[in-house]
């Protein structure tokens, strides 16, 4: 004769000993699942006997093992975190609501009943109303409320919280002691058997074996067995993977459990459970959360859980039956408050509606239905939000200003499915006639054939008909779309011949604007290397400092072949640096010379210190060739301010040095034209522009300087 209580105990033992031994999780605990209750009842009715159902459980276990071997557990990576957190919070809320009656001795429903609609036709809330109407037990209520108080104190007192003795164990011992005391007192305080743990008691080992039920192997060829097994496998696997993810989020050490290995463990567990008469097993969030909150660190706790259950059932049932249900209910209720903490609700609210709505809908669905239906509703809502997000903004769009003009950069996602077709088609339809577009698949692993056809048609037919130039990048060979760039991704001869010095300056200004705002262009450097291998057509010469924090190409967001870079400490003018600039202007034909100084310049700061101390650079530094650099910076230092250098605060000293760096930029700009006849002539005819800029190493932003703002009396210092 089937005993649902004993079958559940067997499933708990198997979940601890068998699943716990094979599982790779350190914190998850398996056992009979409340989410499978409806399926168990329905399948027993369909198959006609509990013995036939046990065979279906074994078949389900085989299917789970196969799912684990083919690594189907990787699907758990796609479960939205909002649903997982909604599951945790829902379990917390259910524990609170369901355990309140048990805490005060209202035990008409079995402990562990998690569904909203209960076997006695009551529901979660109507059951609570009966408690408030006076249906409670004085002795059980005293045990329950005292246990809650003890657990709260145990969690707040540091010495107790860190002790090796877990609070729940003390609660159980306290509950037994109070039960024995109330038994002596008698009257309304005595706790009857209906309010106690009730484990079947066997008179002997032989009697214990009679509690086991074997499957009906004669039903082996019945197709209904395999349909039931597949149903159990799918539902149990889904519940296991979700609960595994949820328990991992509770793990203080943030470990990840291997999901496919867990499916194998659950499959073996269900085969064993079905063989000996147990219910189907899954990873159980309630058991796992209590395990974590009790301080478990390894899966030894899960195995020990199974050992204790086996000992309790086989050797100690009479003693286990001394535990009041109110004490156990108190442990679960306090666990519920930890799972459904106000902090979690605040966090989800702060993350916006796309996180909060799936979270709260999952929570309410589980509370008002059952675990399985609620999870499916939560997953469905999350899927709708994902689809909505994909339809609204599935693709990243960036308007980039390249050397050859504006380009609409379409960056495809990692997975581009038919769901993205409408959004991509909308982008194509909104593109301005005559514009340039780059479709970038560099970070894409999969593109749906429908999307490929749409891109191919727009590139070869629709785009050209509207005057839209379409370039491609990053498409794999199998897509049969040739990568090509049809706009100026770098400086070309035609571009250099067409632009004016002012336009070249604007390109550099826009580049730094992109750099310091974090909107740098996505460049194909390999393409630029190949394209500039034969010749170069730079737009500008940039004279900058050797400081490692000011790489000119990066801070100006330029590509390979765009500028000639001259670097010297302090961005000063000497014979060699001036000769390099002249070569760029006269031979390479650049349109712009930019002197790029920067704040917190070490060369400028050293010059200021040497000058104010009246020290010799060679004697102080040991550098025999440093004089030429110091000599160029000295005219920019205010001698009167230098006398107050030691009196300045660190902030004032930094401002003083930065001002000298600014004046030094102005001086270098002036000296380039003053010392070079060829550059001076080109500047006077408007063919070349010489400007300065000061780069802020703290913000990444440049201040472009003009001669009108110069306060420097630029002399004709020569080398």
From TrEMBL:
Gene Ontology CC: membrane
Keywords from the UniProt entry: Membrane, Metal-binding, Transmembrane, Transmembrane helix, Zinc
Parts of the chain that traverse the membrane: 53-70, 77-97, 136-157, 164-182, 224-242, 298-315, 322-340, 360-387
InterPro entries (alphabetical): Carbonic_anhydrase, Carbonic_anhydrase_sf, SLC26A/SulP_dom, SLC26A/SulP_fam
Compartments reported by the entry: Membrane
Similarity annotation: Belongs to the beta-class carbonic anhydrase family.
UniProt name for this protein: Sulfate transporter
């Amino acid at each position: 004769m089937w005993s649902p209580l004993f079958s559940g105990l067997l499933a708990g033992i198997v979940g601890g000993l068998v699943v716990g031994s094979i599982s790779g999780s350190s914190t998850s605990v398996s056992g009979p699942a409340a989410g499978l209750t409806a399926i168990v009842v329905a399948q027993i009715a369909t198959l006609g006997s509990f013995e036939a159902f046990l065979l279906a459980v074994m078949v389900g276990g085989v299917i789970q093992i196969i799912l684990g071997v083919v690594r189907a557990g990787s699907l758990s990576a796609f479960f939205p975190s909002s649903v997982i957190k909604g599951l945790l919070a829902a379990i917390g809320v259910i524990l609170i609501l369901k355990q309140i009656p048990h805490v005060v001795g209202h035990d008409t429903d079995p402990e562990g009943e998690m569904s909203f609609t209960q076997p006695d036709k009551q529901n979660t809330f109507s059951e609570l109303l009966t408690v408030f109407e006076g249906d409670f037990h004085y002795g059980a209520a005293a045990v329950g409320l005292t246990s809650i108080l003890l657990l709260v104190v145990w969690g707040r007192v540091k010495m107790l919280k860190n002790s090796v003795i877990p609070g729940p164990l003390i609660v159980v011992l306290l509950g037994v002691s109070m039960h024995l005391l109330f038994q002596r007192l008698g009257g309304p305080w005595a706790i009857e058997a209906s309010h106690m743990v009730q484990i079947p008691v066997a008179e002997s080992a032989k009697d214990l074996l009679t509690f086991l039920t074997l499957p009906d192997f004669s039903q082996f060829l019945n197709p209904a067995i395999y349909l039931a097994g597949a149903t159990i496998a799918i539902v149990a696997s889904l519940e296991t993977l979700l609960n595994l993810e949820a328990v991992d989020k509770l793990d203080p050490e943030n470990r990840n459990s291997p999901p496919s290995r867990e499916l194998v463990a659950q499959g073996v567990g269900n085969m064993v459970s079905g063989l000996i008469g147990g219910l189907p097993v899954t990873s159980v969030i309630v058991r796992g959360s209590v395990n974590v909150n009790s301080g478990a660190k390894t899966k030894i706790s899960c195995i020990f859980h199974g050992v204790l259950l086996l000992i309790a059932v086989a050797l100690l049932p009479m003693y286990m039956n001394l535990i009041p249900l109110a004490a156990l209910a108190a442990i679960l209720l306090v666990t519920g408050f930890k799972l459904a903490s106000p902090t979690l609700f605040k966090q989800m609210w702060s993350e916006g509606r796309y996180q909060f709505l799936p979270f709260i809908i999952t929570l309410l669905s589980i509370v008002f239905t059952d675990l399985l239906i609620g999870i499916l509703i939560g997953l469905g809502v999350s899927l709708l939000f994902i689809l909505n997000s994909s339809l609204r903004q599935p693709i990243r769009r960036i308007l980039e200003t390249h050397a050859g003009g504006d380009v609409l950069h379409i960056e495809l996602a990692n997975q581009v499915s038919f769901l993205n077709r409408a959004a991509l088609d909308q982008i194509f339809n909104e593109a301005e006639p005559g514009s340039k577009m780059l479709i970038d698949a560099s970070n894409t692993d999969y593109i749906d054939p429908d999307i490929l056809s749409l891109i191919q048609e727009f590139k070869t037919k629709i785009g050209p008909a509207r005057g839209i130039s379409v370039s491609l990048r990053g498409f794999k060979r199998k897509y049969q779309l040739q990568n090509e760039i049809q706009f100026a991704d770098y400086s070309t001869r035609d571009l250099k011949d067409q632009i004016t010095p002012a336009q070249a300056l604007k390109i550099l200004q826009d580049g730094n604007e992109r750099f310091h705002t974090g909107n740098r262009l996505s460049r194909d450097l390999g393409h630029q290397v190949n394209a500039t291998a034969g010749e170069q057509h730079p737009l500008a010469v940039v004279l900058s400092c050797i400081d490692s924090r000011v790489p000119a190409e990066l801070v100006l967001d330029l590509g390979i072949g765009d500028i000639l870079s001259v670097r010297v400490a302090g961005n000063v003018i000497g014979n060699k640096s001036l000769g390099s600039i002249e070569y760029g202007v006269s031979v390479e034909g650049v349109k712009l010379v930019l002197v790029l100084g920067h704040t917190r310049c070490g060369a400028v700061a050293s010059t200021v210190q040497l000058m104010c101390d009246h020290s010799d650079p060679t004697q102080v530094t040991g550098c025999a060739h440093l004089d030429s650099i110091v000599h160029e910076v000295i005219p920019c230092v205010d001698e009167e301010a230098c006398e107050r250098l030691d009196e300045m605060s660190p902030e004032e000293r930094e401002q003083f040095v930065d001002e000298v760096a600014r004046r030094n930029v102005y001086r270098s700009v002036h000296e380039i034209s003053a010392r070079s006849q060829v550059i001076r002539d080109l500047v006077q005819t408007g063919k070349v522009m010489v400007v300065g800029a000061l780069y802020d190493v703290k913000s990444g932003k440049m201040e472009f300087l003009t001669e009108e703002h110069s306060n420097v009396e630029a002399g004709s210092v020569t080398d």
